[in-house]
């Protein structure tokens, strides 16, 4: 069987993942893999570096996340887009063990061979989203619907 995806240089940012053949809608492409960490462990390891603009950390649930830097696979190179062709889903462990929750990447629509795979990272920060942070977390997806940042707007506290 022909490989479904390949990694190579991306016009969006650094490395990217591309369709190696035409892909149908609603296809599970890959599981996002890496070392499981608690949020506290990740904060100690990475120091809450919100000003780096680069992360392979994927939140699983309130207790754990996946660190694609350690033991990660090609899924860590899938870039963000404001108009994504894929979507990430957290699959909760059937036995209720939050450490065994998983993340899979599915296609949202049919994807043509050679097209770059993208999903919306949905990054939220506790910090105020200053113009400087928005520049650090800039989006380069090139979509006509691009918001200019991969950060999600904070929800208004007004009722």
If you average the pLDDT, what whole number results?
90
Give the number of domains. 1
CATH superfamily: SET domain
The DSSP helix count reads 2
- Determine the structural class based on helices, strands and strand pairing: mainly beta
CATH class bucket? Mainly Beta
Order of helices and strands: EEEEHEEEEEEH
Largest sheet: 3 strands, antiparallel
Alpha-carbon Rg, integer:
16 Å
CATH-defined topology: Beta-clip-like
Question: What's the end-to-end separation, in Å?
Answer: 54 Å
The CATH level-2 architecture is identified as Beta Complex
Helix content: under 10%
Shape: globular
Quaternary form:
single chain
Percentage of residues in DSSP E strands: 25-35%
Report strand order across the widest sheet: 3-9-8
Contiguous uncertain segments of 5+ residues: none
The number of distinct β-strands equals 10
């Amino acid at each position: 069987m022909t490989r479904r995806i390949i990694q190579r240089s991306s016009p969006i940012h650094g490395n990217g993942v591309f369709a190696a053949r035409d892909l149908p809608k609603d296809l599970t492409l890959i599981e996002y893999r890496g070392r499981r960490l608690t949020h506290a462990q990740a904060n100690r390891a990475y120091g809450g570096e919100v000003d780096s603009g680069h992360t392979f950390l994927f939140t699983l649930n309130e207790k754990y996340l996946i660190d694609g830097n350690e033991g990660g696979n090609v899924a860590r190179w899938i870039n963000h887009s404001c108009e994504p062709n894929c979507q990430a889903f957290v699959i909760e462990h059937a036995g209720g063990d939050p450490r065994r929750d998983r993340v899979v990447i599915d296609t949202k629509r049919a994807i043509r061979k050679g097209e770059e795979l993208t999903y919306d990272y949905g990054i939220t920060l506790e910090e105020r989203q200053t113009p400087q942070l928005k520049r650090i977390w800039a989006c380069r997806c090139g979509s006509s619907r691009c918001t200019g940042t991969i950060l999600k707007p904070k929800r208004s506290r007004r009722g």
